[in-house]
Amino acid sequence: MTVESQGEGSARSDVVYGVQGGVWMKWVAISNPGRVRTTNEDGALTGPGMFLLADGMGGHDAGEVASAAALEALAEVFGPEPEDAQVVMEQVVDRLRQAHAAIEAIDSETGKRAGTTVTGVLLTTYDGVPHWLVVNIGDSRTYRLAEGYFEQLTVDHSQVQELINGGFLSPEQARVDPRRNVITRALGAGMEPDADFWIVPAQPHERLLVCSDGLNGELTDDEISAILDSDAAIDECADHLVESALNAGGRDNVTVIVVDATTENFADNW
Ligand SMILES: [Mn+2]
């Protein structure tokens, strides 16, 4: 398990390979502070069958502590083999509640309340078959590209998402709306710590992207999809995504985890 370094600088993992529960995976994570912020409050946690990201808020003495606390709590869920999705979900709910209480107790020098989003996937089984347990609280995102079809697996907890649901904004308008950074759920920050979950079957070949809003705030879904849906290897894709977000302004910390996963033996396919 690796928690990518947070704080001042940029962090980039090597491409890592792993296999768990009949799913072969390779992944890479990059976390960049962006071009405006002096600190990086995002964090990433990766290991075979666990790809999670947290985007902290509240300033450097609060946000990075909050995102790290959430990821450290969730790291304890990780086991050597995938477990039943329902069991894992209950463990994640417990860990998120504990992290929420710890984050609410953080005493920030800035006076801003500490908080963090969390999103990503954990490999589980459902009816004995590999499934991804997708988790989200806040406005970080998990996307999937499979069979040429690109989709956001999560739904943001944000004010603009509620306006989209009500038909008042299009996703394109929401991306530039001044209210776009207002989130409605988080760990800490005096908010409700209720995460949403989805259980989706692992595909024969799929590419997953877990990202903070520093990516999708700068790039449209079409732009993200075009970069992911290429013959490029995951490390090239991850570099391209982060560079594109920086070139578009880099106004927030940008973190991406890109995963290729297959239920077929990669010795034959990769
Ligand atoms: Mn952010």
Could you give a quick summary of the protein structure above?
With 270 residues, this protein is α+β, with helices and mostly antiparallel strands. Helix content is 28%, strand content 33%.
The helix count comes to 8
Radius of gyration: 17 Å
Q: Would you tell me the overall average pLDDT?
A: 92
Reading the helices and strands in chain order gives: EEEEEEHHEEEEHHEEEHHHEH
Structural class: alpha+beta
Give the % helix: 25-40%
Bound molecules: manganese (II) ion
Number of strands: 14
| Uncertain parts | none
Largest sheet: 7 strands, antiparallel
Approximate shape: globular
Give the strand content. 25-35%
Write up this protein:
By secondary structure, the chain is of the alpha+beta class. The protein has helices at 63-75, 85-104, 159-165, 171-176, 213-216, 221-228, 234-247, 266-269, and strands spanning 2-3, 11-12, 16-20, 23-32, 42-47, 50-57, 115-126, 129-137, 141-146, 149-152, 187-188, 196-201, 205-211, 254-262. The strands form two sheets. Strands 1, 5, 6, 7, 8, 11 and 12 form a seven-stranded antiparallel β-sheet that branches. Strand 3 (16-20) and strand 4 form a beta hairpin. Helix 1 (63-75) packs antiparallel against helix 2. The longest helix is centred in the middle third of the chain and has 20 residues, at 85-104. It is globular. The two termini are 23 Å apart. The model has no long low-confidence stretch (mean pLDDT 92). The site of manganese (II) ion (MN) has 6 residues, from helix 5.
